[in-house]
């Protein structure tokens, strides 16, 4: 279970997230939608502490951290949260000078200090899961965007995080390549992977998310079952926004 209570994030005078409270049960898939600049990326980055919230409490499994404007997190607290999350970015962000399999092994070796052979075995299994075992020794630059993103998903899953965070995982891809990535994420969802994803891809969101959260101006303005939010949103502004995605 992941729970955010009153998470606030300010950049100087600019409040980018205000009092965001959400809970996501284990095994659930949550889609974050909303206009550009609404705070989706910042919220995901706060969950894995790429950004430090200005206030509120974040709980992931047994790990819980309370933030304040002045308080600094200890390295141990940051590590504790970060190890429970895996992140997938819009533009893949693979290490360009590592092969596909080395990308997946990297964190296991450098952060978790796994022996190389154990890391390799785990990476092979994950590459198989995302349909990329045949490209284990390929360089990222030689792969399509859909293939790179599938490797990025394998890399994010390598340390067995409790939650997979995806920031517009299909936005940089042509439709047929996006479909490969949607298939992988749908498979993970069926297997019970807990996911939170920011997306403008209605097909992705409606196919795999149970819950949709609409973030607008840094606030949760609507939340509900995916079908309900997409087909019968409560707010006029949400309806207009969803219409732009169709
Ligand atoms: P979304 O992903 O929904 O498009 P973002 O989370 O990227 O929204 O951005 C929300 C707001 O936060 C925007 O106004 C953006 O300019 C601001 N913002 C994001 N990151 C930073 C940063 N590092 N410094 C200052 N402002 C930021
Ligand atoms: Mg964003």
TrEMBL record:
A molecular function GO annotation: ATP hydrolysis activity
Annotated keywords: ATP-binding, Cell membrane, Membrane, Nucleotide-binding, Transport
Domain ABC transporter: 2-242
Any single Pfam family the record assigns to this protein: ABC_tran
A Gene Ontology cellular-component term: plasma membrane
Main location: membrane
Signal peptide span: none
Entry membrane topology: Peripheral membrane protein
Compartments, as annotated in UniProt: Cell membrane
Family designation: Belongs to the ABC transporter superfamily.
Protein name: ATP-binding protein
UniProt lineage: Bacteria, Pseudomonadati, Pseudomonadota, Alphaproteobacteria, Rhodobacterales
